[in-house]
Amino acid sequence: MKAFFVVLTVASVYGCGGGYGGTTAPSNQPTNTPPPAGGISVENNSYNPSAKTVAVGTTVQWAWNSCTGDPNYGGTCTAHSVTFDDGTGSAIQDHGTFSKLFNTAGTFNYHCLTHGTAMSGAITVQ
Questions:
Q1: What are the pLDDT digits (tens) for 82-116?
Q2: Which of 101, 119, 99 is nearest to 110 (CA)?
Q3: Cα dist. 117→45, 103, 113 in Å?
Q4: Which end of the chain is more exposed for a tag (fewer CB within 10 A), N or C?
């Protein structure tokens, strides 16, 4: 009977992740996404860089980096958007990426729907 309780205890510890390599942290929480080289980081209340010059035919990618703290233990992510003056752009989101192809020369201003022009940027296409 004693052996039965020992086996039951060991099985319970392994099943709950009790220090044997398991984890009790949720694994589906959003995390920051670094932008690719030449991309733009969507941060808390800013785009980094806020102004960028690219050649005609360039695709620019924005990556959300607005999460603070440990996402597995109560981290917080702030929702932002990339919204161009013509109304096109990304959804309001707290993680992920958004890409846009620029086939026409000009300056394309954008802002966050949550923060308005206090959080804005521009892509100049030459």
A1: 999 999 999 999 889 999 999 999 999 999 999 99
A2: 119
A3: 10, 25, 9
A4: N
Alpha-carbon distance 108 to 114, whole Å? 19
How far is Cα 18 from Cα 91, in angstroms, rounded to an integer?
40
- Of 65, 61, 51, 113, give the one whose Cα is nearest residue 87: 113
Beta strands in the chain (DSSP E): 40-43, 46-48, 51-54, 58-64, 67-68, 76-77, 83-84, 97-102, 106-112, 116-125
Report domain extents, the chain.
26-125
pLDDT tens per residue, range 46-61: 999 999 999 999 999 9
Report yes or no: 111 and 83 within 8 Å, Cβ to Cβ. yes
Residue closest to 43 by CA, chosen among 65, 26, 59, 27: 65
* Cβ–Cβ < 8 Å for 121, 110: yes
- Give the end-to-end CA distance of the chain in Å, rounded to a whole number: 80
Say which CATH class 26-125 falls into.
Answer: mainly beta
